[in-house]
Write a structure and sequence with these properties.
Layout lengths: L8 H11 L5 H10 L3 H13 L9 H10 L3 H13 L11
Length: about 100
């Protein structure tokens, strides 16, 4: 197991600028909401890239759920099956 320390403000800002070259209100909200969590920050920023509505999800769970909901039905079914089957899963005939 690897524990990641929260990003310092300057590190989080550097990561955000890679996704949002011109920091806008949405990116600033992402920085604040992530509170230094690098995974959550990256996912919030990616969500912001995909959707310009400016809303920031309340949790990583709601963010991941929203991304899953946008998958194609076959991909969503594969992901749901994999989530129930654990790390050892073979999808016979599945091609992406």
């Amino acid at each position: 197991m690897l524990d990641l320390a929260p990003l310092h403000n300057d590190e989080a800002l550097t990561l955000a600028r890679k996704v949002f070259p011109e920091m806008g209100p949405s990116a600033a909200s992402c920085l604040e909401r992530a509170a230094g969590n690098p995974l959550f920050l990256e996912q919030l920023l990616r969500n912001g890239e995909e959707h310009a509505e400016g809303t920031v999800p309340d949790s990583i769970q709601s963010l991941v759920q929203a991304r899953m909901d946008r998958l194609k039905p076959k991909d969503k079914q594969a992901l749901q099956t994999a989530s129930c089957s654990g790390s050892a899963l073979h999808l016979a005939g599945y091609t992406h």
